[in-house]
Amino acid sequence: MTTAVTDALPNDALPRDLALRRAFSVYPTGVVALAAHVEDRAVGMAVNSFTSISLEPALVAISAARTSKTWPVLRAVPELGMSVLAAHHEPLSRSLSAREGDRFGGHEWRRTDGGAVLIADAALWLTCRLHSTFDGGDHEIALYEIADVTLFDDIEPLVFHQSRYRSIAAPESA
């Protein structure tokens, strides 16, 4: 069956970068806080380019914009916290995405002995060490080896889809 799309724009109607942003926004992603304790303060940023890579060794990948001022600081730490944000963390995600100001906005977090910062009430905590980095155009791709995992099964993750925050709806009963 073929369905006509009535609100689609021709490929040449938008600048290429805007068209790509819209295209990429069709794929729902989680939101992950990357954070560490650096010079007596928590430093963090939000990313939605996060994926599992390998079970052996245990690897995940993230990508960060080369224009980020926070990424070089986090890339240099020996241990990085990755927290999969929960559905109620939308304000925190917005704060972590801001260019200035208090990124943690009063949200609770804990520091590991190695300096990783983990967000309270997140769906998942990963404590990681940098494995390798790769060129990704206007982003840098980083592989991290997982040192520790804490999973909170009962916490619903925050989802980013079509440039909006969403939550996962429970399936309807048959």
From TrEMBL:
Superkingdom of origin organism? Bacteria
Q: Which Pfam families match?
A: Flavin_Reduct
Cite the EC number: 1.5.1.36
Name all Flavin reductase like domain ranges.
24-167
| Listed Gene3D superfamilies | Electron Transport, Fmn-binding Protein, Chain A
User: Sorted alphabetically, which keywords does the UniProt record give?
Assistant: Monooxygenase, Oxidoreductase
Q: What GO molecular-function term can you cite, just one?
A: FMN binding
Keyword Metal-binding recorded: no
InterPro entries tied to this protein: Flavin_Rdtase-like_dom, NADH-dep_flavin_reductase, Split_barrel_FMN-bd
Q: Which family does this protein fall into?
A: Belongs to the non-flavoprotein flavin reductase family.
State what protein this is by name. Answer: Flavin-dependent monooxygenase, reductase subunit HsaB
The gene behind this protein is hsaB
